[in-house]
Hints:
23% of the residues lie in helices and 30% in strands. It is built from three helices and eight strands; from the N terminus they run αββββββββαα.
Amino acid sequence: MRMNRACSIALLAGIGAHVAVADVISIDVRNNFFQVISAVPGQGTNGCTINVGDTVTWTWLASLHSVTVDDGSYDSGVHNTPFAFSHTFHSSGTYGYHCIVRGAPGQGMFGTVTVIVPCPADFNGDGRANSQDFFDFLTAFFAAAPAADFNHDAVINSQDFFDFLTAFFAGC
């Protein structure tokens, strides 16, 4: 009995980890280049791939630089160290940015942020929607774990179950 209870508690703790949370991605503004610091696709380069809803924070490690998106929708202005600028990405797409002092769109000091919509059926967050996601959702649902609130209405009910099934069978 004690072993089963401990296993159940460990299982439920793991289920809670499946709730999607927006991330903050760090990019350093260095002397004549941008460098992705966070552990995301593109780490160590000037381009990264993130999810819709994530925020990118650029931190100045060198002076007289800007972060200016190529389409002009946002601009940090030219700053010196210490300075940080953040932008939350609400739409998917590829966003080019550059330093107006030492770059131009796609040239010199520039970078890209590619924003994707994560697959809602990838319940366990492993990058694939498969039977394990289905079983993980069922386990969370029947345990009434917070992660089973698939539609985020603060109630775990049959609507969450049907919403997950719809997403799962729609595929990614």
